[in-house]
Amino acid sequence: MITPRQLKQNRDLQKEDQNSLYKTIKGYIPSSSLAAKNKARSWIYGYSKKYNLVVISKTGQVGDIINVNGLYIALPLEPDVVIKRSEALADQYWERELFPKELSKISSIFKWNDMPTPFKDRWVDYIEHEFDRRELGHWFYNNNISTYITGSHYMYLQWTSIDVGYPDFREANRVFFIYWEACKADNRCFGLDYLKIRRSGFSFMGSSECVNTGTLAKDARVGILSKTGSDAKKMFTDKVVPILTRLPFFFKPIQDGMDKPKTELAFRIPASKITKKNMYDNVADELFGLDTTIDWKNTDENSYDGEKLLLLVHDESGKWLKPNNILNNWRVTKTCLRLGSKIIGKCMMGSTSNALSKGGDNFKKLFEDSNVATRNANGQTKSGLYSLFIPMEWNMEGFIDKHGMPVFYKPKEKILGVDDEYITNGAIDYWEAEVESLKSDADALNEFYRQFPRTESHAFRDESKSSLFNLTKIYQQIDYNDSLITEQHVTRGKFYWKDGVKDTEVIFTPDNKGRFRVSWTPNKSLSNLKTSRNGTYYPLNEHIGAFGCDSYDISGTVSGRGSNGALHGLTKFNMEEAPSNEFFLEYVARPQTAEIFFEEVLMACIFFSMPILIENNKPRLLYHFKNRGYRGFCMNRPDKHFNKLSKTEKELGGIPNTSEDVKQSHASAIESYIEKHIGMDLTGAYRDSSEIGTMYFTRSLDEWARFDINNRTKFDASISSGLAIMANQKNLYLPEQKQSKINLNFARYANSGNYSELIK
């Protein structure tokens, strides 16, 4: 595993903003427009298409614009008066306000109505203010910083009783609730998919939101799911019900049934908002059923099928085991949150991940499909959810100071923690020490990574026993990639023909929507080089590198979920102005038509002027090359001499994927490349032991980690990358020439002078 020295090296290379959960964006809205709309109080809660941001302010005014995980969020404008616990900076932090004893004795709205008028006059402002904080959020000074928390976060901190009393304030949870509020406000969003660490408090935060939502709504349903039915029931009985029970009377609705139900909370009427205008009203005549419920369901793909949900809290969604599938469940459950195209409910989903082979792969797919940067024509992510990941160091128990901020590294002097214990070590230091101690046990280490991830790739680590290749090296490389600013090493883009004229010059241009990811491009003297022989084009840069390709033949599939086409470019050792033994191109996509894919592959090969090794069981790509005059770019299978090839193989080139020998050679090629060029080379056999390999394409690395030689169809990137390696090492696969079994011993003579002498 990575040594402490190497870990420090990687730490020093980390992204500048890695330890920032959000960025404040200055000048995002023109100052004149911002001032005018604030003056008119015309900002509307929800998504603003004009400014491409989500407004979570309910006052009509906005302040800071922040970017959380790629989502632009407009916070409320700071009020004139902000609560300050103390003038001393060290004593400025969140502190829960004690519930007044006089009010705590009132158990229901009926007892409130029976209280004398002077009593009501004394307390109505307090109650009204609490309703405002629940609705609008709350501001307080934290270490001399005016800090905003949402209404949901306020209800969690102030009124949610948990197993240790009441929650502490954490900056990580503040950002979580801000992001959650944006998910609620955004009419394009079905909710939140939160990739978390162990004991982050999500179950209690979700339970709090169940109660907060369920006690406000009319004719609504709030649901709970977890990794098992018993876990969902436990969340309901041990968290949701006690939270409701301990709410103050003015937030607590009239309840049907038992005080501590096992399956369902049913509210007859919601809690009435007590104000100066209605504080003397008698609501006894309004006790009619409004059918607002909070319940839980057993874990099943169709748990809430056919129901209409206002809120679904989906706990431990990364731990669903077969036969249950979180992807299938979400496809069904998603329909419970909409009427036609209108989203009427939200899902709060959160979990750590199981090993990929134990259900984690489905959660990983769902998380990746929830990326806010990738949207369809309706403005929605593929899943409809918005993903959020908060690294371990932000939320690790025992490393949060009094102000709710994390202590990353060992402090020079001890720091008072939020639990009133002193912090003498840093969260990252602690994490690195644990990693170092587990380096000899790969599965234990990967489990630790999943429980306490610092990166998304940590969260989805698989068990080592399920991998065909060296997971240690693969994950070393992934960790290193996570520490880099990707944009400085990899460019997304596309290829096109100059002036739109085919078979002329290919040009590469950066494009954020491009399907190619490229880490190196040749200078002009090395690009678009080809020669023609007998009407066929041949590449001139075979000495520099080659491509591998996993193709497909059919544009669409019945299910709409056909495998991707994949292309990888790899250099070999060379003396040109090019990297050696390095993957420089990754393409994993399925364009609208197969013909688009074929042409994009062809253009890449021409631009780099390198040959390509293609699987020939789906031959349309090979025919595309041949028909366009580029048969010379298509390599023959390297494991046979030309005279042993079939007629079709001679015509088109390519290599079959059905041969067991080819499968084994393909896997061995990847295995060898990983050993030599991926992760750390602690033996120093291939490079300095302090240097890490260069492979910037984490998606391909991730596939290598999960590759199953007996089920290769799901691993498009692994197929194409392995073929690229084989293409560059074709000399290794040539069969030995068979020697004749007839041994002809001809007589040999030494000839000198005028006679010959037989050599014995």
Description:
- By secondary structure, the protein is an alpha+beta fold.
- It has 3 domains: 78-390, P-loop containing nucleotide triphosphate hydrolases (Rossmann fold); 394-466, no CATH class; 487-732, no CATH class.
- It is 30% helix and 18% strand.
- The protein contains 21 helices and 30 strands.
- The strands form 8 sheets. It has an 8-stranded mixed β-sheet with strand order 10-11-12-9-13-16-8-17, sandwiched between helices. It has a 7-stranded mixed β-sheet with strand order 21-20-22-27-26-25-28. The protein has a 5-stranded mixed β-sheet with strand order 1-4-5-3-2, with helices on one face.
- β4 and β5 (71-76) form a beta hairpin.
- α5 packs across α6 (151-159), α6 crosses α8 and α16 crosses α17.
- The protein is elongated.
List keywords for this structure.
7-stranded mixed β-sheet, 30 strands, 8-stranded mixed β-sheet, elongated, disordered N terminus, 760 residues, 30% helix, alpha+beta, Rossmann fold, 18% strand, 21 helices, single chain
Helicity level: 25-40%
CATH superfamily of the largest domain: P-loop containing nucleotide triphosphate hydrolases
Structure summary, number of beta strands: 30
Beta strand %? 15-25%
**Low-confidence runs of at least 5 consecutive residues:** 1-18, 283-289
Q: Based on the structure given, which CATH architecture of the largest domain is correct?
A: 3-Layer(aba) Sandwich
Please indicate the count of domains. 3
Oligomeric form of this entry? single chain
Largest sheet: 8 strands, mixed
**How far is it from the N-terminal to the C-terminal residue, by CA?**
63 Å
